[in-house]
Amino acid sequence: MNKKLLYIILSLAIILLIPFVFSSEENMQKTINISELSLDEKIGQLMFVKPSGKNINYLKELHVGGIFLNNLNSKENYIDSIYFYQNNSKIKLFVATDMEGYWNPFNNFYNSSSFGDINSREESYNLGKEHGKILNELGFNLDFSPIVETKNNVWPYRTFTGTPEEIKGKISGYIEGLHSENILTTAKHYPGGSLIKNPHLIKYKANISLEELSYFDFAISQGIDFIMVGHPIVYGAIDSEGKQSSISPEVIGELKNKFNGVIITDAVTMMGLRISYLFNFKKVYPDLILAGNDIILDTHKNSKYNSLVKRRNELKKAVLKGRVSQDRIDKSVEKILKIKGYQVVY
Asked: Are strands 47-49 and 296-298 parallel, antiparallel or unpaired?
């Protein structure tokens, strides 16, 4: 066989093998054995943070499962930051922002309607699709939206208005619009009451009605992916037993009876929750996981890297001492990995 013919045969073989090699590699990446993950890697999947700049330690030391970005000054900065974190993460990241219109994370280059501006299901679908397109363009895969609460005394235009049926139409339209662009969705803030007063500033109680809960039930029926749990102490149609909803097994346990998706906390450094842990805030992590949350959202200006390490270590210590079971951690990790698109084995 002459050299020219041999070269042609080898070249053809390589061309034919390339798709098989990449397909095999992709399939291998899509299967994760939870038992092979370290405890640090598992706990990292339960953490959603707002990184400061490009810091590889968020991935190599904390192993975070999700990042939140807002208020960067250009499309290029968003794309560059998201690429850096996704490209350097062993496990695919959730990348989220608050795309409600009221608070626009992209106000340097994009103008958005607010939920209060929406007059119909069709308008809501179009807004969701519009939001989904820009999120996709920048590299996001998750929107902390829509808000499905209706009692709003603090932030006008963050919520849909109208009759209960009109509001449900707007909720379903927005979810459908985001899903049409392959963006994951979040109903917030369960079980209600987070807009009656400002949970960023104070600890308070809220009376929850069956109607308020019905909007979350409706969002579940429409295929919502995440539900974010708020911090008010609640009573009425649901009772948090004197604790903030986010650390109440009673509230989250009832939610888990009807929702199989990911349960995430509202930002945990809000004073509405933090005031109960003023002298030892790192203790909040074990309590949040024991209450039933799958992911802890820790994205405030007080969520510095070293503080995140201390809070992670407190949860790790609780697992090693048996206060939080390995099985409890594994169940949330499994749920998170599956919604990220992985096949999970043990």
From this structure: parallel
Q: Does domain 50-345 sit in CATH 3.30.420.40?
A: no
Angle between the N-to-C axes of helices 284-291 and 305-320, in degrees from 0 to 180, rounded to the nearest 10: 60
DSSP summary character for residue 282? G
Alpha-carbon distance of 303 to 45, in angstroms, equals 17
- Over 173-193, what HEC string results? HHHHHHHHCCCECEEEEECCC
Contact 241, 250 (CB under 8 A): yes
User: Element (H or E) spanning 243, and its range?
Assistant: none
- In the block, which residue shows the tokens 């061309």? 15
**Please, which residues have CB within 8 angstroms of residue 163's CB and are 6 or more apart in sequence?**
none
What residue spans of 186-301 are helical by DSSP H? 210-221, 249-256, 271-274, 284-291
161 and 102 in contact (C-beta within 8 Å)?
no
Place of tokens 């399939």: 27
Give the pLDDT confidence of 8-31 residue by residue, as tens digits.
444 444 334 434 333 334 444 599
| Contact criterion met (CB below 8 Å) for 239 and 253 | no
Q: Does 101 score more than 90 pLDDT?
A: no
Q: Which residue reads 């499962």 in tokens?
A: 65
